[in-house]
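Fig. S4 source data, part A: sequence.
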Amino acid sequence: MGKIKIQKKDIWIDMTPMSDVMTLLLCFFMLTSTFLQPEPIQVNTPSSVSEVKVPENDVLTILVGNDGKIFLGTENKNNMNAMLQTVTDKFGISLNGQQLKNFSQESMIGAPLSVLGNYLALEKEQMAEKIKTLGIPTDSIDGGMSEFQEWVKAAREANPDIKIAIKCDAKTPYKVVKTMMSELQDMNENRYQLITNLKTSGED
């Protein structure tokens, strides 16, 4: 008896729907992702057991380095520009178009008002290096509010619902942290979150 030959047929699968789905997923993740803003200095936060997540939007982040230098900023560029307008108007600081453009590209504020104009006039690479040596002063201005308080006040005026988050280095001097928190309390800013790393089971 002769063998029956099974006719072989080519199988063709239309991959177009899969490509469409992959493209849609890619676009979705690109549009909904939150990119980390570069910080002026590297900060190694202390560990804690708290699992409370800091909000991603409408947050004024106060960054404190291990040398005590203070920087602050928010992810909302409109709020950042409004803060700059408020502070420069109050202290009579005039900035040109290039300086304003450079500020709009900054993720954080960290220059004293006395050198703010000169700092914003630098090239981008020079600004990145210079800001590490600056920081916002916490000394009072003529017996009134400090520059740090003025920026926090401007942030509150720009967005009354803004939340405050403090990110300190594990080696930041306690005196600096105490001074900063005291200035916040003087402004009745008593609610803020501390950014830390989650302590692992292997840590003491």
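Fig. S4 source data, part B ends here. The radius of gyration is 25 Å.
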